[in-house]
From TrEMBL:
UniProt keyword annotation of Cell cycle present: no
Ranges for domain Aminotransferase class V: 29-401
Keyword Transferase recorded: yes
Single GO term (MF): pyridoxal phosphate binding
EC number: 2.8.1.7
Keywords of the record: Pyridoxal phosphate, Transferase
Name of the molecule in the record: cysteine desulfurase
Organism this protein belongs to: Acidipropionibacterium acidipropionici
């Protein structure tokens, strides 16, 4: 099949210098974008230009460079607010990563919890949206509960309803918009309605969704939403917490230090209004500049177009991998309400072994439990392989993935004859 004609993936690939890398005799096939995305030259240039020509701390210096840096940082905040449909820039908090954002949610909302209260998550959560809530419940005496999944890898909403998972004791519901293992896109608006009906706060981990699809936080139903910059072609070292301004204004500080304060006395302090209340110390200034450039880049292509490309890749990859004997796909096997992230296991082959031999053929995938160990235990697996493309991934790279999977299977299960060469093998 040919590439989707409405999307010029080759023109996109030309913007990413690293994609010209070779691994031995093989071209790099980078299928680990759910872990971190590659960066276009415009983002690399934006970060380098800031350090070379505008570097200074923000809000502390009134000299020329200080003003330029502050304007760039706050301009980046405005750009990200626009990118996700926030009502105002003050709803956007800049942190180091999505993990810090989710820890902030658990710490501040956890200060409201007590014995008899309940926090609801799901079994498919990344550890960053699991461990902070465990800690919050341990500190407060609240109870942690979770959505199970169906055999298809979707949230088991019927079981949750039967068991009264979200009820009058629920104070917080925190669920991923898209699973980093299964690729499942969860019905956040529906869950948010249920949470709000009992007065609970709805927290969303959107790290695997914001890079892949259009997001409008004002319409999603979330009260707080976290995502990270490095998965959306932006720099490492920056994560975003969006929150309804009225809720942010109610929450206590997470970290203490410079810039998050209003007045400091020796015996007490008062705190700045959001978002600065949650941005103690020097913030990720150059990273915000790079993230704004990333938002410009993604919007220049069009998030609808990127989402359509992702669906096309998912459909093509699911079709190709489903024909590999001995391979088990985790999660939905149709490209409906799912991203292009596909995890799988190969019968008789450890994921780390398969990952290594696939890497020798230039195919970069991830092997492990992908920071979702409870989900793998629920699926009866110790670990899995994960292939995740992005806006720069081509169908021929999916073909290379299928070839590499078959090669690894045959190599480790003894099906390959001595001196077997490369290329698509018959299953």
């Amino acid at each position: 099949m040919s590439e989707a004609t409405a999307y010029d993936v080759e023109a996109v690939r030309a913007d990413f210098p690293i994609l010209s890398t070779r691994v031995g005799d093989h071209p790099l096939v980078y299928l680990d974008s759910a872990n971190t995305s590659q960066k276009p030259q415009v983002v690399i240039d934006a970060v380098a230009d800031h350090y070379a020509h505008h570097n200074a701390n923000v809000a502390r210096a009134m000299h020329k460079l200080g003003l330029e840096s502050t304007q760039a940082y706050e301009g980046g905040r405005e750009r990200i607010a626009k990118f996700i449909g926030a009502n105002r820039p003050e709803e956007v908090v800049a942190l180091t990563n999505a993990s810090e954002a989710l820890n902030l949610c658990a710490y501040t909302l956890g200060s409201r919890l007590g014995p008899g209260d309940e926090v609801v998550i799901s079994v498919m959560e990344h550890h960053s949206n699991l461990v902070p809530w465990q800690l919050a419940c341990q500190r407060s005496g609240a109870t942690l509960r979770w959505f199970d999944i169906t055999d298809e890898g979707r949230l088991d909403l019927e079981k949750a309803a039967r068991e009264g998972l979200i009820n009058e004791h629920t104070k917080v519901v925190s669920v991923a918009l898209a699973s980093n293992v299964l690729g499942t896109v969860n019905p956040i608006s529906l869950i948010a309605e249920q949470a709000h009906a009992v007065g609970a706060v709805m927290v969303v981990d959107a790290s695997q969704a914001v890079p892949q699809m259009p997001i409008d936080v004002s319409a999603l139903g979330a009260d707080l939403l976290a995502f990270t910059g490095h998965k959306m072609v932006g720099p490492t070292g920056i994560g975003i917490l969006w929150g309804r301004y009225d809720l942010l204004a109610e929450l206590p500080p997470f970290l203490g230090g410079g810039e998050m304060i209003e007045i400091v006395k020796m015996d007490h302090s008062t705190y700045a209004e959001p978002p600065h209340r949650f941005e103690a110390g020097t913030p990720p200034i150059a990273q915000m500049v790079g993230l704004a450039a990333a938002a410009d880049y993604l919007d220049g292509i069009g998030m609808d177009a990127i989402a359509a490309h992702e669906r096309d890749l998912a459909d093509y990859a699911l079709e190709g991998l489903s024909g590999v004997k001995g391979l088990r796909i985790l999660g939905p096997e149709e490209a409906v309400d799912r991203t292009g992230t596909i995890s799988f296991s190969i019968e008789g082959v450890h994921p780390h072994d398969a990952m290594s031999i696939m890497d020798s053929r230039g195919v970069a995938v991830r092997g492990g439990h992908h920071c979702a160990r409870p989900l793998h235990e629920r699926l009866g697996l110790q670990s899995s392989l994960r292939a995740s493309g992005y806006l720069y991934t081509t169908r021929r790279e999916i073909d290379a993935l299928v070839d590499a999977v078959e090669y690894a299977r045959d190599f480790f299960t003894g099906r390959m004859s001595v001196g077997a060469g490369s290329g698509r093998r018959q299953s």
